[in-house]
TrEMBL record:
It is found in: Cell inner membrane; Cell membrane. Belongs to the binding-protein-dependent transport system permease family. HisMQ subfamily. Residues 95-388 form the ABC transmembrane type-1 domain. One of its GO terms (molecular function) is transmembrane transporter activity. It is a multi-pass membrane protein. GO terms for cellular component: ATP-binding cassette (ABC) transporter complex. Keywords: Amino-acid transport, Cell membrane, Membrane, Transmembrane, Transmembrane helix, Transport. GO terms for biological process: amino acid transport. The chain crosses the membrane at residues 29-47, 91-119, 131-153, 188-210, 222-242, 262-284, 342-363, 369-391. This is Putative glutamine ABC transporter permease protein GlnM.
Amino acid sequence: MKPIASKNAVQEKPAKSQNILYNPTFRSIVFQVIAILALVLFFYTITSNALHNLAARGIATGFDFLSQEAGFGIGLSLIDYDETHSYGRTFFVGLLNTGLVAVLGIFFATILGFVIGIARLSSNWVVSRFAAVYIEIFRNTPLLLQIFFWYFAVLQALPSARDSMSLGEAIFLNVRGLYLPSPVFENGSGVVIGAFILGLVATGIINTWANNKQRLTGQQTPMFRIGFGLIIVLPVVVYFVMGMPITAQYPVLKGFNFKGGISIIPELAALTLALSIYTASFIAEIVRSGINAVNHGQTEAAMSLGLTRSRTLKLVVIPQAMRIIIPPLTSQYLNLTKNSSLAMAIGYPDLVSVFAGTTLNQVGQSIEIIAMTMAVYLTLSLVTSALMNLYNKKVALVER
């Protein structure tokens, strides 16, 4: 006999179809789709209106201007550039200059921030008070004011080129910048560079092996001596064997300025100093709080095993504190990159000054230029966040 379907079972199907509007998952998807469509419609409307208004005033739109000749010079360029190059070239010049100051600022701010943060916890009263005063002064002073201080009060007070402060006959410092010897690569220099890269790779591989060995057996490998031999001694030996193929070109005073060598313009120096010192004050507090968050019992246990304070900090405390330090540290890196746009105040040729400033004033296509500038800062922020998140996952605790 066939089973007789109950009345309740027959009524279940239409009940489900009627209640789909009350399904939380379905409702959330519908609301998100509506929000996205509304956002797209909003930007489409304002963009269409803006383009219509520009067309009515006879202002060109599009990206054809990128191929036009720029006609203005740029004080600092990491790639070949002169007045005959296009506006597209100015975009890349400004982009590279922004990337340069961001990388330098992150590098120096990280080192200085960690040093000041650890000094803040020092048992030495003078060291800890000095770190505290540093943090309070630079953290509570506006960044723009600090940029002005380093540029106008410090660097612009340096002597002229003829009265430069010098270190031997190689390094010169004056109001126009810092001048250093530049390397000259001749035949055979590629072998020396290859030896240096090989030393770096070999040191990384040996360091990974040494860490695994220490984890399994507890035996330590003298990585400092091995790294010094591979990264320093090996390239130096190859350098002399190849007949010293890398020489130096020294800056020489000609007329009112130095020629040759590597020059660091005062705008770059002032901006890097201000960004590094300002951001380091925040990083120092992040480091201090991260170290304080590590259970003090970890320090006592390490010292009971005979580890010194420095090795306890290096091997026990810092690795655990990094899991707490990295997320807010990422935010400071992003802030530093975005704060570099203040370079326009002292004339440093970054992306905002060169592209969103001079180029915009000449071509007048604000929508395209501002959109490209915003896209650059968004991309830099996303790349920085992605790299820091990868590192954060590497040092994070793995739950089992």
